[in-house]
Queue: 2 jobs
Job 1
Amino acid sequence: MKYNFLFLFVLLLNMNCSKKSDKVIDNPQLGHILIEADPSFKSVVSALQESYMNLNPKTTIDFVTKKEDLCFLDLLKNKARVVVMSRELSKEERAAYDSQVGLKWEPAKFAGDAVIFVVPKSSSRTSISYQEIRKELDSEDKNIVFDGTNSSNLNFVAQKFSKKPADLKFSIISGTTNLVHQLEKYPDKIGAISLNAISRPYGSDAEKLRALIKVLPVVKDGKSYNPSLNNIKDMEYPFTRILYFLTNEPYYGLGNGFIRFSCTQLGQLVVEKEGLQPYNTYKREVQMR
């Protein structure tokens, strides 16, 4: 009996050790995770993803685009490790995050973006006022066109006016690229898209979209504001928004490693090259010899 008990104890110990060794926890230099973001932020997130994996070749970061609301739900369900958000969460969403994720609320801000209003190059319109946008979103004419329901652009503009998306009147043309290409057919319509969709200075896709549209300055309180980086940095452009990461990762793994990279100097240089405003700015020091 003594030997049988000892054999059973050793067997159970070996099984437990085997289970522990089979479970590989990722770290910032090794592992495989999924990141999700709204299609509006595809360009900047893709650039950060590519840069991080180039620096850490033993990592695999899959990036999937989904509507912003669905990204947040996937984070709560542990289907995605990291998501990008642009609007403030409601009290109910914050409560759901606190209860289901169980981590301290720490949004990692990494870029200044904006919702911009565009018309075809052929349009005679040269600007749009803040009040006009508000008025149009209450009009049955539905002259403001968004890239989809539950999209980050629609959610953010609705929140800006302290309303729910369902309370607004608007048109839909699915997808930013499709919206820009179709806008010429609707001369009275005004597209609402993300700055990041056209901000990459030398990106071929962004260049093609820029060639088709005019970006309208937004007039508010008698002043006209373009979505320039200076106006975004100073939060003066009325529809400036800050992009931030949320994670459900309770340890310093690949998800938090990617977030830290994106918020530090190298990641912020990537954000800048994407034509967005880095959230964390750094002084450039030059050593003279």
Job 2
Amino acid sequence: MTKIIAVTACPSGVAHTYMAAEAIERAAKAKGWDCKVETQGSIGLENELTVEDVAAADMVILTKDIGIKFEERFKGKVVVRVAISDAVKRADAIMEKISAHLASATATD
């Protein structure tokens, strides 16, 4: 099963952080993928990704509107950076692009 992890954060640290997390989770689950999203909002880190989560991930999605804390833990992983507004409004399209990337990566292995 494809495993996607993500970290969402927005400059104000409130609504969009959580809206993006929900949209990413919903879009990944619609594809039948396992998904875990860490939020870095105004109340700190929630649903923190573990070392095991990162190790098992096929793809990492990071929002790019504000710096992500502890980003170094994703070194060596395929990382997709998206605007928080795209994560909220276009999560399905993001998953389609990831799906195409994963399919082409598998085809070349």
